[in-house]
Amino acid sequence: MIANLAQGVQAFTSNVFLVDGERTVLVDAGANFDVVAAVRERVDDLDAVVLTHTHRDHVGNLEAVKDAFDVDAWGYDTSIDGVDRAIADEETVRLGDHEYVALHTPGHKNDHLCFYAERPGVLFAGDLIFQNGSFGRTDLEEGDRETLIESIDRVRARIDPDLEEMHTGHGPSVTSDPYDHVELSAQMAR
After folding, report:
1. For 98-105, what is the mean pLDDT?
2. Can you name the residues that pair with 167 across neighbouring β-strands?
3. What is the mean pLDDT of residues 112-130?
4. What separation in angstroms does the CA of 181 have from each of 7, 71, 89, 112, 168?
5. Which CATH fold topology does 2-189 show?
6. What is the pLDDT of residues 48-100, one digit of tens each?
């Protein structure tokens, strides 16, 4: 089960996905709302926090989550404060009941990761790709448009055209033809 704990939150935050199952994890921690209470409404415990990247809107609640549930944060770059364990490019990570491959996808931020599970056909796209052809900002520090395009192309080449769900760092998840949104993002970023 995947639930967006930030849905309906009016504060500036990223989406926060609770992936329940064999290994219960949060994908990103969000910012500026009580995510600990939101987690506790649904599950008793967490096994880890997995980060798409470390922009403030994705990690503002990280310390509170780590303290409340005594968990480690997993991300691409352990030299960044708060990231306890490294996830390498192409490493397999269990989120809920499924194995996801981590794809290093810089361009929005150097430590950006996307997570893809061929079965059940789910992509956590972070701030790389959004619905309707939108894509991550490249005007922030570490942003680079050409690198972002390469990262989108890499994800597009890796995912199955029958992708079932794309969960993004902001805005609604895409459950109707998400592959088409990835293709459109690749076109629009150019």
Report:
1. 98
2. 124
3. 97
4. 21, 34, 23, 19, 11
5. Metallo-beta-lactamase; Chain A (3.60.15)
6. 999 999 999 999 999 999 999 999 999 999 999 999 999 999 999 999 999 99
Domain ranges of the chain: 2-189
CA atoms within 13 A on the CB side of 184: 10
pTM of this structure = 0.97
Can you tell me the distance from the alpha carbon of 7 to that of 52, in angstroms, rounded to the nearest whole number?
18
Supply 47's token pair.
């096994």
Q: What is the percentage of the chain residues whose pLDDT exceeds 90?
A: 100
